[in-house]
Amino acid sequence: MSIVGHCVDIVEVARIARMRLEHGGHFLERCFTAAEQEYCLRNAKRADEHFSGRFAAKEAVLKVLGTGWRGKIAWTDMEILNDASGKPVLRLCGECAAVAGALGIVVWHVSISHTEIHAVGSAIGEK
User: Fold this and answer.
1) What are phi and psi of 109, to 5 degrees?
2) Catalytic pick from 6, 26, 109, 114?
């Protein structure tokens, strides 16, 4: 396997908290799948950290794909959930899956870390 791209993104948790406060459900529905929302809202005290981490990881995925957020790309074309051990796992659909396929990406590695202030996401795509 060879690495197609490795990208990172950092997000201020306060920015995502502000988006949730100002735009509520519209922001959540636009950026996160129902399963992601359920996961992030399980711990209300840390929900903004969890949303921020996923947002940063999705930005990193878009950087690996080289698309940014434009055209037919939708935030919900990417879903980041956790496996049984807690490891983040990426699932693509729609335009993101099509772009990844065109690039030959068959394996993804995603990592998320956060504090009360910042969240960082990392994505590696391999072919």
Assistant:
1) -125, 125
2) 114
Q: Is 63 a catalytic residue?
A: yes
Measured distance CA(45)–CA(117) in Å, rounded: 13
Distance CA 44, CA 59 (A): 23
**114 in catalytic set:** yes
pTM, full prediction: 0.95
Write down the catalytic residue from 26, 63, 72, 127. 63
109 token code pair? 């590695």
C-alpha to C-alpha distance for 50 and 39, rounded to whole angstroms: 8
pLDDT digits (tens, 9 = 90+) for 8-50: 999 999 999 999 999 989 999 999 999 999 999 999 999 999 9
Query: What is the pLDDT, as a whole number, of residue 67?
Result: 85
Closest Cα partner for 121 from 63, 45, 38, 66? 63
